[in-house]
Amino acid sequence: MNNLACNLAYHNGDLDEAHELALKARDLPSSDANVADTLGWILYFKKEYLQCISPLRESLSKNFENAEGHYRLASVLYMIGDEEAARQEFEQALAKQLTGFDQADARRKLDLLGVSRGKLTPSAEASRERLMKAKSPDPGVFLRIGENEAAQGNYEKALKLLQQAVEANPQNGMLLLSLARSTFARGDFAAAMEFVSNARKIMPDNVEIVAFLGGTRSNWPRRRSLSFARTWSWSGYLQSRRFVKATCDARFLFWNQLPRVNLPSPSYVTSWV
Questions:
Q1: Alpha-carbon gap, residue 5 to 11, rounded angstroms
Q2: Is 153 in contact with 137 (CB distance < 8 Å)?
Q3: Dist CA 232 CA 27 (whole Å)
């Protein structure tokens, strides 16, 4: 049944039927690591990235030496924006003798992940225009191009790039965070709140997202009622006790990560610029 699911997905492109078969195969008492791996990879092709993680981790728990399994999990983590976890899995895959196209792709993405956000590797910079016109935007590339444009003050261009990437992949927490930063810097607080809230649903334990969410809430335009401000101010931290001890660091992160621009807003909003 697992082999049939693979054939339907990889050769026939019938992802829905393949998904149903993979689910049935997973429920069998004799299901092995390959079954969960197949299910996770079918979900990847369906672009249901958040649902991929559990079966792929289950597969690796049964066969940790599977290089392809590490590569697939890394690919999913890369697509949702969990870059540090993706880097670790790509490294594991290469250490376990990953081969072929997967090996080349893992090395390319590792090179990109080794570059600070807002910058690109030389090869990616040389292919910048082609990458920007790709049918399926690479989230790591678009994140860096968008933040690079924002760092240079090209906020409209950055917004356009980031919006294009988010439309193609609305499940990437770091793309949503970067989009929230840009919209916040333009004074669009409601949009910033929506983007960063969606980012936190994807990556609830990411301190950058939690910090920005708390900061956005506490700096909501003051025309809101006092009860609203009390309800929302820094509640992003209080929802998770593990971040309470990191509150000061996270607040600093929020202020430090904002672009320094002059906003067409009242002084109580622009006083931090």
A1: 10
A2: no
A3: 43
Lowest mean per-residue pLDDT among 12-21, 56-65, 108-117: 12-21
- The radius of gyration of the chain's CA atoms, rounded to the nearest angstrom, is 21
Question: What region does 154 belong to: left with phi over 0, alpha with psi -120 to 50, or beta?
Answer: beta
In whole angstroms, give the CA distance from residue 48 to residue 83. 18
- For the chain, what percentages of helix, strand and coil (3-state, to nearest 5) are there? 75, 0, 25
Alpha helices in 152-188 (DSSP H): 155-168, 173-185
Cα separation, 258 vs 273, in Å, equals 9
The model carries a pTM of 0.77
Question: What are the structural domains, with CATH classification, of the chain?
Answer: 2-113 (1.25.40.10), 117-169 (no CATH), 175-273 (1.25.40)
What's the mean pLDDT in 211-235? Answer: 51
Quote the tokens at residue 188: 């669009």
DSSP SS3 for 265: coil
What are the angstrom distances between the C-alpha of 255 and each of 52, 78, 216? 34, 26, 10
DSSP code for 5? H
pLDDT tens for 154-184 read 888 888 889 999 999 999 999 999 998 888 7
DSSP codes of every residue in 76-137: HHHHHT-HHHHHHHHHHHHHTT--HHHHHHHHHHHHHHTSPTT---HHHHHTHHHHHT-SS-
